[in-house]
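Tutorial sheet, problem 5. The two components below are modelled jointly, 1382 residues in total.
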Amino acid sequence: MRNSKFSRWCLFLITTLNLIATPVHSQQDAPTTGLNGDAPVDPFDPFEIPDLWDSMSTEKDDSKSADELLQEALYLLETEERLLDARTKLLKALKKDPQMWKIHYVLSGYYFSHVGHFRLSMKYIKRAEELFTEKHGPPPYRDETTQFEHSNILYYISQIRLSLDNYQGALDALDDYTRLGYSATWYPGSRAWILMKLGRIQDAIKVARSGVLLGADVGRTLNMLGILLSMNGEPQEALEVFRKAIAAEFSDGTRGQPATPLNNAGEVYKELFDDDKAESFFLRATSLPDGCEHVLPALNLTLLYIDQQKTDAAISTLDGFQKCVAQFPLRNNEEHAALVHLARGRIDLHTGNIDRAITHFRAAMDGTQWFGKIGTNQNDLMVATTISLAQALLRKNNALRFQVPKTWGEWFETKRDRVSNSVESWWLMRRARQLLTEELNDLEDLSIRNTDSLLEYPTLGEVLQGLSNTALAARLADETRRDLRAPSKMFYQSYLAESQLSQWSKGDAARILDTIIDRSRPRYDDLLKTHATLLRLRTLDPSSTRYRELSYRVFYTTPAELRNYGYRLPVRIEAPAHLRDFILAGPFVEDTSSTNQHEVCVITSQQKPMTSDGNVILRFTCPTNSTKNRIVEDSDPHEVVNKLSEALFREEIKNGSNI
Amino acid sequence: MSHNSSIPLYKTVLTFRVAWAIIAIFAIDSLIPLGTSKALLVGAAAVGVIMFSRLAHSRLTNVGIAAISIAIIATHDIAFWIAQWIAATTGGTGFGIDIIKLHSGTCLLSFSVCGVASAIFWRARWAILAEVAAFFSVAISLFAGHRDFHLDKPKILNSLAWQLRVDHVTMLIIIGSTLLVTGAVYLYCASLAIRPRSDQVTYQRAAATRQWITSTLVCGALAALIYFIQQMVYAHFSAMVLARAANGVGMGSSEGVSPLSFQSALGSTNQPAGLVRLEGDYGNNPFSPMMYMRESALSSFNGKEMVFAGRAYDSDLPLVTTRDSFSRTEDAELGQRTPLVQSVYLLADHDHVFAVDYPVSIVQLKNPSPKRFKGTYRAYSIAPAYAVSSLDAAQVGDPRWSDDIRGHYTAPHPDPRYTELARKLTEGLTNPIEKVRALTDHLSRTAIYTLTPNHNTKPQDDPVSPFLFGDHRGYCVHFAHAVVYMARGIGIPARIGTGYLTDLSQAKDGHILLRMSDRHAWAEVFVSGIGWVPFDVQPDQVESHAETQVDSKLLEELMGVLEPGEEILPKDSAKSEPGMEEPETVWIPTQATLHTILLSCIAFLIAAKLLLRNGWRIAPTAALRLRLGYIALASYLHDIGWSRRYGETRSEFSQRCTPAALSEVTSLLLKKTYGKDALPTHHEINCAILSGERRLKQLSGWTKTRAALNPASLIRLFTGGNW
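Model answer (structure tokens):
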């Protein structure tokens, strides 16, 4: 969920603070390039930034008053979006008059809205408040202008505290606001958002409803109410409210931000398992100017596509977002980098690019991500990344298991890597369980597609199986009983089956998994189906017909997952004995039982195993699916098997590390 | 404990083991958050060490100890299994018990690992060797991130180096030698301790005063030796390592010698190189979001590679040191440019200034933190503002150039293959810009970016041909050379620009943190009426990534140092606000703190010694006075080398000692302990003690000095030894 109006509001407040002036100078005054011949006045003075090519005026900044500089800065900020030029002017103004509260106020707004340096923003606004009080005395104030100015300072304080995760402090600032009898259209929406962050959903709903009744900033307040209703388990009501919010935002013209309620409505549809509608809402959000530059619609759409195993669509969604964001070179990537790394990592993981996935997940864990403007939080991201990284390490181990070592050194390195990956993934899974149960309110995210959760629900069972079997079974039964959404039952069943598998109850697990494979929604829950299929393989003998049937089902749709989960592909081998051993050390198992030769793919070596240049050629052919046919060649028989493994079980996708 | 004299050593080893456990827990937690209170984990580790050490000294067999460990773990699991079963049968659907189990499991892990390791240590002779080997293996693998010149790994090394304001190599050596000294001290102490049941023979090495002195001297000598070796190693290798770490691009150049390295770019680290603060918007940046900052240019071919040509040719370069100023007039013939002011704060040594092309003025700036920044200057550039697409129809070269200069920039490589390839790639194209693009596009498609091209060339060989006509594996240095050679081969004036290429999307408020990994070399072509324009290769195939995220916390910290507004804002502005805490850093005591700690320790030791010697004077009861008086005299004797031997009675000891300072006090003490008479009076006790003191005062000045300075009595006091 997203509430992206903060920055707009801050800019709006700056301009409405009786500070905005008509442009002092027009663009036609822009001088030619070049020095005007004067040496810098004092090069050792950090404030002394020369205005030799100042496009605002032919007059030097030194001769201008602080107020004039402030007006020019506001013009640059609002009209021209020349942020750094504006900052320079503000700092010059500050040097000229350090006691002028308005300069501190605007600098605070600049660092809050444009830079995201919240601590510095807080320093300026607190100083602005001090200077304001020195000038006007302590509140309450009788004069309307002074009241308005003070109310804006309080608003800023609340917003900056919110960004610094000081929710109670933010609420206290708004309480002061109310106590002093101030009112503004943004107030209900802001108060409701802070109450929501404090977990006081019912109070927040009351505030938002009263805001809607009073007609306060309708679009934003309705959006807020929609979010709250959705969190309160009233999705239909939430959708109705979002529809009104979207209409209100569109009616607001260029100032409106319809992408926010569109994205939020999409999230509700996703939660209701109406994937088509969710996709269409996310697509609309990403196509709008205010939606393309924000990460959440793109992220939600990508995660939806990952659930549906639409890899290409997921990649192009993220590419589109990053292209859009690239238009704003001064935008800091802390707004989105960690989330994009998470999504890119998952795509890489499901396509067999495991090393790159691990790099992405580690980057997501190390990176800084702001959460003030979005409903999700650090713990949601941390738990999702921790689980994904643990899964990636397990997958890496499975891939290493099928790597045919060339030398003893390579064999030793592989073993060492497998041990270290096992220990790390064990610890990360354990840590994820701890975060899920302790930090995320006793596993509240177990409710499938919980809003704001970044978990990959189809594979969540991998982490849940480490919890106590009895407690998990009881909780899953409870969730199944309470959750009225039919498709979610399959997910709970999948977790139960995975837990049973870990307790060696293969029979019960197999029955449940067969149900999931047969009944899960085609096209929408493909990842769940694949995961269930791969779990089912664990209960089967690799020489059985069922194993062959299921493994090929996975191989033809998402080949990377077969090796990721550590399963071998049944094949017929037509190669000399020594080469056969190498092939069987890779991710293949020989199928000798098949009577129908068209059921399995064939690996054949060249008639003469050694070609004229000494290379070994392996040909992989599938009678029923020629798109999987591959030919690999290498001088080393170890390497040729590894090459075949890579060619079959790793999908080439564009490197998306450019975040 | 089988022997009293080994108790101090036993306790020292226990203390060492607990200390190691604490360090390990904190170190692991800083690398991977453990999620459980560190106090609990440390407590569990300490209990494990003490409990299993006691078990190791008991009559239990090894199997018995193993059984106890297994029983503890089993009891833990069964208890939780029962609790979970009860919770499930009573209808509970929460995971409260799982949460407790996760925490207690972590504590149990800490307890078991430390405990079992201690038991093995006491029982097996090989344990010390195994422990030391394990310790050094972990330390080496942890701090061996630098082995490929990634001197910024692990992250803590980066943080410490940054905070202590030393380079990474120095930091690495400091950490390495500290670990070595600590390990050596531990090894020495551990080897002194008894082994209760190894070979069923109890052996011990007495902890006599002389041995403590020897231990101290040995440890001191070892520390001095290691420090000496460290200095030697540092002096020998630091220059070479730092040169490698500098990535070879544009660092350490001197006239006529290429500053570029073709062998490896493994020094591409995250180490901060400088901070650039844009003082105005640069909206027309044609390379957005990237920005080129040029330091030097290479336009002369020395028979092997491109090198700096001297001021006669590349006159657009400022080529002044970071402590000098520079000024030139704007070139009126070059258009489509915009003014740009940059303030540069250097975090690493640089020979020459760098700035966005082309600087017309460099002035020195006030250094806001001389300890932090190695130099500061402000550059006024006339920066590119053209649209890259507008270059399509442009011509190359400067009409004002003399034939000599034109010939200099278009001199082809003697190897005709470069020209042949260039002609082949640009066949059918007439426009020179299109031709250059065709060359860079070809390399972008075919080249493989790698930090380790590993071309086996001889020093005199052309280092570019194995790349361009070989495996196509290389990095920016190879790409830039290849483009320049090919461009010159078809008559296009070209040179190599060196400096930094930075990503503005990682900037904050116009502040750009430059890292060593941002150092870059690129090809440049002179476009008529515009100037030198970068034509960079962007390879599709990337084998190794030097790309890393900018440390945003460091950037914010530096912004705080530079922010002019911070000078005006009161220091305590918003200090009470939650969330205003500075980013977490590794705590390093200041010099003043270290002095205070040192002085406090010395004061404490002096006070303890004074109390040891004179405590009897303030004892309220006669019995206590007698005991403390005995300890005062015995401790004095201990400091000058007289200690009670194993099995020796106090009476025998007092008779053996010369001077016979203890004889009277010992007889009173024995009378008090074993006699039936009343306690001696205060007067009798005072007389006996003072008599002993008088005898001690008759000793030589050297002996009395030894008694005053020797810490042996204090060590015995703190380790609980008997007098």
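Marking note: Chain B touches chain A through 77 residues (CB under 8 Å). Full credit if you identified this.
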